[in-house]
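Retro notes, structure queue

What went well: the backlog is down to a handful. What didn't: a couple of records were mislabeled last round, so from now on we paste the full input next to the output in the thread. Example, using protein-serine/threonine phosphatase from Vitis rotundifolia:
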Amino acid sequence: MALLSQQLQRFFLTTLNCTSNVKATKKNNSVALKERARCCSAIAIDAPSFSGVAGIRWGLCRLQGPREEMEDEAVVRSDGLDGFSFAAVFDGHAGFSSVKFLRDELYKDCVAALQGGLLLNGKNFNIIREALEKAFESADAKLLNWLETTGEDAESGSTATVMLIGDDMVFISHVGDSCVVLSRSGKAEELTNPHRPYGSNKSSLEEIRRIREAGGWIVNGRICGDIAVSRAFGDMRFKTKKNEMLEKGLEKGRWSQKFVSRVQFTGDLVVASPDVFQVALGSDAEFLLLASDGLWDYINSSEAVTFVRNELRQHGDVQVACEALARAALDRRTQDNVSIIIADLGRTDWQSLPLQQQNLFLELVQAVATIGIVTLGIWMSSQFSL
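Corresponding output:
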């Protein structure tokens, strides 16, 4: 379904009376949103200015959907990586503690493993991939130890997708179901695949096979009937506490003693091993868009790229475009939290580009449907009040 035009969005947008408290912190050229907002409100900060890569303009936004807790985080940093910028989105579950730990620790481990950016500038992909794999493994081991020691949200976990952006290259290290999309002359290129234990694509089939070979099972698209993402940090019950997880399930009647006796774990069911990619940024590369699955489950990559390009064509403000995209996910009735980072690479004269045309017929159909739903709701409310 095509996104509504700006005029139709403004006409049909229902104002939500929600409140949020925003606290943006800036330290060492880093930006991380610290607030825990309530209700369905868009949360954003002013677009920061970084010295890491000349010409990049940033937009960063977090939005809390209908969920009770905001467990996402988005971070951008430009210090410590010798001319490369670090951008990451974390999507937590079962508590915020894993995200809180990772938002600082994963960056530190990446900087150390990459020797302060020296390896990135060397551009030896095999060495860079090994370094990022080491960084992710180190961060996960520290997190598991911290969760067990503190007992704080002990069953929590988090995905993490990291972009390391240079002048002509981006390196991506990816765990979970967030996604990075590159706009190349207006065409959307999806640079990552979601790590999920369901689906028929190659990535999902590989995840399903790995889980089963490790002794796990999948029920309704969830590992052991529990979690719907197959790679993540934390989640100790699927790593160091698998047998305890079995015992708890037996006590709660989730499975029988006979079933438990047949289970033999040979590895971790959830892993933090990243997919690592290297993508060249030529003159046709316009912007990178990194977002959690709360966006992608409701707006596809082509729609998102068209939406952002039209926003930038109208006003050129990356932060405003980022916030507008988050609101579009809210308009689509996203059921998840949404975190978005946009890196405009500074190579496009947005004012000179023509607006990409929306499908007016689909917009009118969507508008008529919206009117019908609103009218029906008003009529039903009046009937109940009689």
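Agreed that this is the format going forward. Reviewer comment attached to the example: The chain has two domains: 6-193+271-355, 202-230+236-262.
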